[in-house]
Specification:
The structure is a homodimer of 416-residue chains.
Chain A: E1 7-13, H1 21-33, E2 38-44, H2 48-52, E3 56-58, H3 64-68, H4 93-104, E4 107-114, H5 116-131, E5 137-142, H6 158-176, E6 183-189, H7 196-206, E7 213-215, H8 223-237, E8 239-245, H9 278-287, E9 293-298, H10 302-305, H11 312-330, E10 336-342, E11 350-356, H12 357-360, H13 381-387, E12 399-400, E13 403-404
Parallel strand pairs in A: 1-2, 1-4, 4-5, 5-10, 6-8, 6-9, 7-8
Antiparallel strand pairs in A: 2-3, 10-11, 12-13
């Protein structure tokens, strides 16, 4: 394509927070601000909902130094949403509204930063615009701590979440194994269908201070085997540290967490209900089989927004993905998602490539079974080799008064 | 005292982990290794239990470079215990054993690093030794994330835990307020009787990204007032972030957590029991009054061992406290605890002082009521002025493969 399309650029953030979603937005925004053919740079308030609500922020009015802090600021600076568009053959109301807003602001470049649902949104919008002869370059930017997008070596957001999980597992290991009086600590980590995040706990084990046992949703979970496994560690070491994915299922596909609803009434000496989620349930179940002090810990929200322990590899790659999206769009590409391809050789390096949105939409990539040990309770070296490069380097998040200095944007709503 | 007492030195670690308990041990051990009158330096395996078990580690056999990493390593490197000695007038079995072991290893300097229970242990051992004409200098080194020791401006361990809590509150604030669809997030923070840790969440509020409401155990908690408070924020802002201390009680002294034991059976769509601890209970209760998405998050163990976000002020002061303990003992002081006294003036500076063990044993210092607002749901500027200096500076914890490089000691058991 020889002539660059001229018009405004719009970026939206979608789905759950990560530590680096704003680094991607910044990469895209800074490249857009420097590009002659782009007349305006907008950010959608709460993703596609901001388009439907005619609520776009004018990013050209932001202070560049404050914008630059987005690189280290977790969660979506522009706001996010979980909004699934209907099939436009069934109901095109939202699509017509999107077309109106795009026309109103002359949006010719649209970037959507999210997971597989967001790539589906991207793909549908692009198809509708094409059918209505509205010229617009649509590029997806990957983002998910779950690391489950197809067609890419890994996803921006995963490295930082994995670094947080591995770091925290090492610290909890030091805490949980310190009394020497016999204990079972179960850590519950996010990931309903894919075990990438839970697997990251094995990076701590690789450093000699991590879970003794790691259970991923890729392998059917069996309660009897679990008790056998922890008994073995308990008898050998006294203290047991276990990491489980929230999404563990048995061989019939039943979530293990649903086994325990009738146990939930039990309370400890302090009046706390013992059962939180799966971690608490499994810990309590273990206590009925072994004379150990038990404890369940849910990593919760913090694992997806702990920017203070972000991976600089992840941050830089996230920025690069946003920049590459803008460059690809200006070069005339559309209906693509930016993806990472690992270069061969002993030194880690990932390059960006473009893949078709439709390849990514609604597909989930899981941890390869050959990276999991035969007993289904630990990770093998190929996983370590895969994941370790992704957590390298420390964030340069600036501090003020000993606390993070996150971006604080003006977010002035555009009018037209 | 003109002649320095000659003999071995023994240090023990006791009670719950902190990020900096090993920094104090290191301060004491390094000063002891450099002191002529100290013939041997021992570490007790699992605190006083290691003495009773005749299990002392010979610290002179450790590699100094590895020892130095203790400064940044969380939880007790030597192991810890929760062991309360009987009154020796009732049962002196343990005391006679301690005297035997001290005699066997010629222990003339004993340091115990812990909270108010540990200071009680220290004080009792010292009295028994004196009654039996065994010359030994006994000094306590303060340690507790709870910050509830009397006679000291603050306790080593609190600054790092406070920094973790404030940092994480800022990150969760960014996560919890990102959908804009109306939500109530309740954070449960440690502290059964004193609200220092929960109050630390107000440091995040001070930076504009923290809990809207903070409830400490110092103020009787009222469920109806709580609902009024959150409704006000919900109506004004849509998303509500609340921090509560695990130890909240009503005006009759009943733990609020005990109100909810019958709700614990309720499960969410994923089969998770909704009720974890107090956070989950209060969040669920709020959902019966307001049409909001609710979420309870327990900070759990991580808040006491998150060395990766340690405060360098706390780390250096913890080291200093250990060093000051050794120096005081060698100078002939006994039955004392090292404490901090804040120097007057606008620039923060704390000096070490010595206070009587008996002043500290079994006393709990709480957050002054005049630092809490009239509504009992927030902290005032005097608390910020008190706490902010304690979280300043970043840890120099070394990294290896992108993960913490914690100390790994040989811990060779001494024989005699």
């Amino acid at each position: 394509m020889t002539t660059k399309l001229r018009g405004a650029c719009l970026i939206g953030q979608s789905g759950g927070p990560t530590s680096v979603i704003n680094a991607s937005a910044l990469g895209c925004i800074e490249a857009a601000l420097a590009e002659d053919c782009i007349t305006k740079v907008y950010g959608a308030a709460h993703g596609i909902k901001g388009v439907l609500d005619d609520r776009l922020y004018d990013m050209t009015l932001e202070d560049p130094a404050e914008l630059a802090l987005m690189k280290y600021t977790p969660s979506s600076v522009l706001g996010t949403c979980r909004y699934k568009l209907a099939d436009f053959l069934v109901d095109d109301t939202d699509y017509r509204r999107i077309l109106d807003i795009f026309t109103k602001y002359d949006v010719r470049y649209f970037f959507y930063n999210g997971g597989n649902d967001s790539m589906d949104t991207c793909s549908k919008i692009s198809s509708f615009l094409q059918l209505n002869n509205y010229e617009c370059q649509v590029i997806g930017i990957p983002k998910t701590i779950d690391n489950d997008l197809a067609g890419t070596d890994h996803c921006p957001g995963y490295g930082s979440a994995a670094k947080y999980i591995a770091t925290t597992c090492m610290e909890i290991y030091r805490d949980a194994k310190v009394y020497g009086t016999g204990s079972i600590t179960v850590l519950e980590i996010m990931g309903r269908n894919a075990g990438w995040l839970t697997a990251a706990s094995a990076l701590a084990t690789h450093k000699g201070m991590g879970p003794d046992l790691v259970y991923l949703p890729e392998v059917p979970f069996d309660l009897a085997d679990f008790i056998t496994d922890i008994t073995k560690v308990y008898e050998a070491e006294g203290d047991v540290l276990v990491a489980v994915s929230e999404g563990l299922k048995d061989k019939n596909g039943t979530y293990i967490s649903t086994y325990f609803s009738d146990l939930a009434k039990d309370t400890d000496a302090f009046g706390h209900a013992r059962m939180g989620g799966l971690a608490g349930s499994l810990a309590h179940f273990a206590s009925t089989k072994l004379p150990a002090k038990v404890r369940g810990i849910e990593f919760g929200l913090i694992q997806r927004c702990a920017a203070h322990v972000g991976s600089s590899t992840d941050i830089e790659e996230a920025y690069l993905a946003g920049k590459a999206a803008l460059e690809a769009a200006v070069q005339g590409f559309t209906d693509k998602m930016v993806a990472f391809k690992r270069a061969p050789g002993p030194v880690y390096k990932c390059n960006t490539i473009l893949i078709d949105l439709i390849e990514v939409a609604n597909v989930e990539k899981k941890v390869p079974l050959e990276w999991i040990n035969a007993a289904g309770n630990g990770l093998l070296q190929p996983f370590i080799d895969y994941a370790l490069p992704l957590i390298q380097g420390e964030t340069e998040l600036p501090k003020e008064d000993g606390l993070p200095r996150f971006a604080s944007l003006k977010k002035i709503v555009a009018t037209k």
